[in-house]
Amino acid sequence: MNIKPTYVTFEQAKLLKEKGLKGIEIDYGLNQMLNNCKTPEQWQVIEWLRTEKSIWIGVNRKFNRFYSVIYTNSMQHFDYIVCDTPQEAYSAAFDYILKQKDL
Asked: In whole angstroms, what is the distance from residue 41 CA to residue 3 CA?
């Protein structure tokens, strides 16, 4: 089995850096189209959210589709964005969480 790493998107990496995740390097170069970014893998973001922000993300499967479940100390949010893969469900959860002002 060949397991390939799954990295967060460039936009997610920018938000993660703003929220305090260390180790992200963003170099825009001469213009925005030629950017260079060292982005974390999804598992690293999941662990950072769990250990640093007390946010737990799970992905559930129903009828060959995937959706994410987000738990915090104060709430439970079900993200019903239908996804084709677990990786897309994690990405949808990241998008939701990173747009929250209180993170």
From this structure: 13
Residue ranges covered by each domain of the chain: 10-98
Q: What is the pTM of this model?
A: 0.81
Going through the chain in order, the beta strands assigned E by DSSP cover 25-27, 36-38, 56-62, 65-71, 76-83
10-98 topology per CATH: Double Stranded RNA Binding Domain (3.30.160)
Residues 29-50 as b or e (16 or more Cβ within 10 Å = b): eeeeeeeebebbebebbbebbe
Q: What is the overall mean pLDDT for the chain?
A: 82
Look at residues 97, 41, 90 and name the one whose alpha carbon lies nearest to residue 72: 97
The pLDDT tens digits of the residues spanning 19-42 come to 999 888 766 655 555 456 678 899
